[in-house]
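Practice problem: predict the structure.
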Amino acid sequence: MTTAQLLAFNLTLLAAMAAPGPALLYALRQSVAGGFWTGVTTGAGLGLMAALWTGAALLGLNAVFALVPWAYLALKTAGALYLIWIAVQLWRDARKPVSDSAHPGARAFLGGLLVNLANPKSVLFAGAVLIVIFPPDLSVGSKALIVANHFAVEVAVYTLFAACLSSAPARAGYLRLKPLIDRAASVILGALGLRLLFGR
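Answer:
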């Protein structure tokens, strides 16, 4: 494994993280609603699960999904239902005070972990990216470095988001528009869950 390959992986990862999806949406909302540390803790949960998906791809879980399609279908269905559940909670709690709607501490970490666990397509994406960028004969040490690097990049990006969005002006803007923002987020997450549930 070369430095250029790791850099290519990181650039691909940053591009994927920038695409609006359930992880980014959840992290942004948590940062604005709960403040900096809630955003960072949520990002750590999201990052750990994303890195574990990359580790699973390196160990060949994408091949297992291809051989045992029902395992992928079961995980995908559970993930879709979890995203839909989050969407329902967001819609229901849109008018609650902000202190009741953010999940601080361990709940923020677990929420982030579960949001990325809810998307088994991550392991297929990671598998495809890894095959294109890295040689097939990676050592155990190289695989561990890729997983650790993935986690570090995710945490750095979500920490940056949390720092920007937990500021007083961002929080004040969110509080003014909370019902509208939460319901828009609910619709987007619900749509993503339905797409995951019924899409290929």
